[in-house]
Amino acid sequence: MKLQKKVASARGLRGVIRVPGDKSISHRALMLAALAEGTTEIEGFLASADCLHTEKCLSSLGISIKRESALTSMPLPAKAQRGEEKIYVEGQGLGGLQEPQEILDVGNSGTTMRLLSGILAGQSFASFLTGDLSLRKRPMGRVVIPLQKMGARIIGRQGGTLAPLAITGGNLKPMTYQMSVASAQVKSALLLAGLFTPGWTEVLEPTISRNHTELMLEAFGAQVERGESRVRVKGLSELTAQKVVVPGDLSSAAFLLVAGLVVPDSRVIIKSVGLNPTRSGIIDVLKAMGAKLRINEEQEIAGELRGTIEVESSSLAGVSIGGEIVPRLIDELPILAVAGLFARGVTEIRDAGELKVKESNRLTAICEGLTRLGGRVEELPDGLRIQGGASLRGAFCRSFGDHRIAMALAIAALGAEGETVIDDAEAVEVSFPGFWSLLDELRSENRC
Ligand code: S3P
Questions:
Q1: What pLDDT score does 73 carry?
Q2: What is the pLDDT of residues 309-344, one digit of tens each?
Q3: If exposure means fewest CB atoms within 10 Å of the residue's CB, which of 115, 203, 344, 398 is most exposed?
Q4: Residue 178 half-sphere exposure, CB side, CA atoms within 13 Å?
Q5: pLDDT band at 448, cuts 50/70/90?
């Protein structure tokens, strides 16, 4: 259902909170659990629209997934109501998937589409995959071409570059593949396909992207070798069910961290957030901008670092973002543009052309939204230039149905005079169920 959300300006955000589980890790946990022998328990699973699409696709492939809520008559803890819960996946081993009887619908989820394509390339049966309007515009050639090179038969619209895709796989050959874009989704698709071939499948990256797949493959017992910008997996080695403890999603926390920094008189503490160094570029950038940001209670589980992040209102300075750090903060660029709006001087984002092919064209979308609020923002061919310090006023803003644009604009609206209306605000359910109520919670803590 379409939702228009009204956001008023704020003062004094306060609270100690948790954010829902990491989206990238939740997708991967479901997929590897399905391919493992035995029952995997996933604690802190993100039950958001994207991950629920992965869950549904795996069910169509014959995997049984049970939720803690269905197994107990006890009242659910609040975190489950916020889209997080414990689930159990009955793995069927590498050879255990069944031909789906229906078309697999991935909704808005590029991660589901691309990673699942890798797994389906290893199956001798036929699968058909589609998604929503946004997903059907996103480039799929980047996974289709290398998977075809491994031996999968894949067809799709526009010469196999756009979904829907039809995949019949099996009999794959291992290969070494040099990627031209730094994409964790492409890397992961190839590593997952590599599980179904004898020998080593190796992927070389132009710049290091998030490494959750390789860390989790190791945790499930696969033979993995990792080097600087290269990773390889040995196929046909058995995966064993694990207990996975999903950290909070830093990409979701990012919105509330920036809110805590730019709204005056705020102090926000977010517990148990993922801090994997291949994802934590935003922490480096915020510190370089002068953020009062502290990390403590650090802990590593199955190779994934997590910790508590504390921020307080800070006077930020503009910064230049570009080069190798970009894949480490690719999903945080919309909210970093918002941080730039409240900083002194200019913030420039470069080398971010990939933002044009996300859930929306995020360069255009954020530029339009922040400009409507009175920001001085220029769209560049591969990024944005933001002149900080403008006085903002509430406006009607379009989210383009993109969860991260809706949330970034909501945070910008906290610092605008008057009321802002954000359209298609239900999009936040894709990655952050409970976002609107958590924001209200942070406002109300201050009133007590
Ligand atoms: C993701 C990888 C990134 C990121 C996306 C999630 C993943 O996409 O933007 O939100 O879980 O692997 P790309 O691989 O296209 O860079």
A1: 52
A2: 999 999 999 999 999 999 999 999 999 999 999 999
A3: 344
A4: 2
A5: very low
Q: Answer yes or no: is the C-beta of 185 below 6 A from any ligand 1 atom.
A: yes
Q: How far is CA 394 from CA 71, 386, 443, in A?
A: 46, 18, 18
Distance 159 CA to ligand 1 centre (A): 23
| Number of structural domains the chain divides into | 2
Alpha helices by DSSP H, 40-109: 49-60, 68-71, 78-81
User: For residue 391, what are the domain limits?
Assistant: 5-20+247-447
Task: Identify the domain boundary among 196, 219, 245.
Answer: 245
> How many whole angstroms from 185 Cα to the centroid of ligand 1?
5
Tokens representing 389? 């310090």
The answer, yes or no, to whether any atom of ligand 1 lies below 6 A from the CB of 252, is no
What confidence tens digit (pLDDT) does each residue in 78-118 have? 555 555 679 999 999 999 999 999 999 999 999 999 999 99
* Stated pTM of the model: 0.97
Residue 409, φ and ψ in degrees, nearest 5: -70, -35
205, 224, 245 - which closes a domain:
245
Distance 443 CA to ligand 1 centre (A): 31
> What are the DSSP calls for 178-220, one per residue?
E-SS--HHHHHHHHHHHTTSSSEEEEE-SS----HHHHHHHHT
User: Annotated catalytic, 382?
Assistant: no
Res 30 pLDDT > 70: yes
Q: Which residue's structure tokens are 């394509």?
A: 117
24 C-beta closer than 6 A to ligand 1 = yes
- The one catalytic residue in 50, 249, 331, 423 is 331
Tokens of 241: 């069910």
User: Is-contact 110 75, C-beta < 8 A?
Assistant: no
pLDDT digits (tens, 9 = 90+) for 386-427: 999 989 999 999 999 999 999 999 999 999 999 999 999 999
- Is 184 near ligand 1, meaning CB less than 6 Å away? yes
